[in-house]
Amino acid sequence: LYINGSMTSLEYYRAHFGSTPQLQSAPLVFADPFHGCTPLRNNVTGAVVVVRRGRCTFLDKAHNVSTANASGVVIVNMNDRIFR
Predict the structure, then answer these.
(1) Plot region of 36 (φ>0 → left; ψ -120 to 50 → alpha; else → beta)
(2) CA 18 to each of CA 30, 32, 60: distance values in angstroms, whole numbers, following the listed order
């Protein structure tokens, strides 16, 4: 994952579901609501959506983001430890 203008590297893991991501540029948008556990209220069509880890399953978050016509989802870990 490369974020234009980022000053740090980002560690990430791919999900065990969904298709292989294509190399493309897309806007990065925060989900509203940020947890992504309910249908999104903001327009995220074609964007990569950032949601916060917790409150519901990764699958629920991915479903809500997909239903909103986003191109991808990044689930952010706000805890001090890495979730594997």
Answers:
(1) left
(2) 21, 22, 13
